[in-house]
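Entry 14. Ran structure prediction on the chain below.
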Amino acid sequence: MKKFLFYGFMLLILLIFFLAGQIIYFGYNSKPKKADCIIVLGCKVRGNEPSHFLKARLNLAIELFENGYAKYIIVSGGQGKNENISEAEAMQIYLKRKGVKEKYIIKEDKSYSTYENLLNSMEIMKYMGFKDAIIVSNKYHLKRASLIANKLGIRASYSGCFVKDRLYFEIIGFIREILALLKFYIFNM
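Output, structure tokens:
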């Protein structure tokens, strides 16, 4: 019995390291390619303001947009608990304050998960005639986002941010993402 527990524990540790390695490798090796649009995946809003993580994602999207990687930005995220407005609305306001014209911002405000962010953004892409996208999120989130995008048939490249002054929250997000990636592999969602 002790041997079984030991081997089970060792297998679990190897699985965690394998998943962590996938997350890190993908996040740090992803490079954006020119596309029809940029999809910014939603994240927490504090009242009406994007959280630090969401601002980092938006700043990266602005940088890509200004450097000509895409002509449109899809902001994706519904209104969560304790949020005064939807994540998409907060993102649109932030982008406009930073100089992005409203005509280049497309709001998707019905989603409550990464899967829904991408599914609903894919529907917008089809409607707009977009063929490909750059998916923007935190580096630790990109591996699972890529698996979901592949499952949905979204042709995409990826670009991730890392919020150095919120290292504690990056670590928590990374750990949570290991579990989310494991869930994806088990349940394919």
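Helices lie at 2-29, 52-66, 87-97, 114-128, 142-152, 167-187. Will compare against last week's run tomorrow.
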